[in-house]
Amino acid sequence: MLTQTQIDTVKESPGIGWISALRSSAIRGLVEQGHIQMSLFDTRDLAEITSAEYPGERLIACFNPLLAEERKRKRNELLDATEKALAGIARAVARRTRTPLGKVEIGKKAGAVINRFKMAKHFALTIEDGVFAFTRNETSIVREAALDGIYVIRTSEPAERLSSEDAVRSYKSLSQVERVFRTFKGIELLVRPIWHRTEGHVKAHLFLCMLAYYVEWHMRKALAPLLFDDETLTEARKTRHPVKPAETSFSAKQKKIRKVTPDGLPVHSFATLLVALGTRCRNRCRIGASGTVISRLTDPTPLQTKALQLLEL
Questions:
Q1: Are 12 and 156 part of one and the same domain?
Q2: 159 vs 4, 51, 125, 165, CA distance in Å?
Q3: Total-model pTM
């Protein structure tokens, strides 16, 4: 979300820091200018670099060999699939000798293939009436392959407040931010669409959404032993390798396999746990001829008891 326009807007508010990542085109520019070289990663996975194009900012270049291998594999698969489909079009064009295919029709067929696999930049096409040929653009392929496994984190935070490693770790918490937006738009908070006419109403609505999620966040942390959530994730994020893929803890793996806690209670998602807690009722009872009415809560189940203990209720 942090485009350059948004970053320029954030800079107008002193004290607000931000972390973002460069797009592939910007990374390619740093590589071609010599700011990023593979020798940077001979003995480590990340290196802090500088560029006059990003004054007052820190750039942390990272290299993940597993990501590089995965991107190479996917690109080769897409190239092969595209080439196979284009070869089929070439054969069909070659067969049509009596009524040759027009270049418009050929272009539509080739365009459908190129758009499906998103490989247009890696192929050169020759299209004429009754003629279709294609070749791989090896220069483009090599140029893209040079960026495999490389990504660059950019931040306004000074080194004394955020180390290079912590900047990368913090950027990876982007998944949490995305989850918040899904929660807002989904069914967890049940926030219905409301159309506001004034700036004050918009800010108040946003504040209430954030406050509701803040409560949910604390509930998730407290109820983690009963959820499929990884209980060690918060502490693990502070110390795990900033570049290598994260690994699920042993306890989280056990919960997913056994689907029960060490206490023998069923493991839930947050949504299903709320449903289970919602089965506890308050009954209104009428006693004797006097008609005295009292309220009585149903006895909690072992699961509800444990949840209430974790929530300190």
A1: yes
A2: 22, 16, 49, 10
A3: 0.71
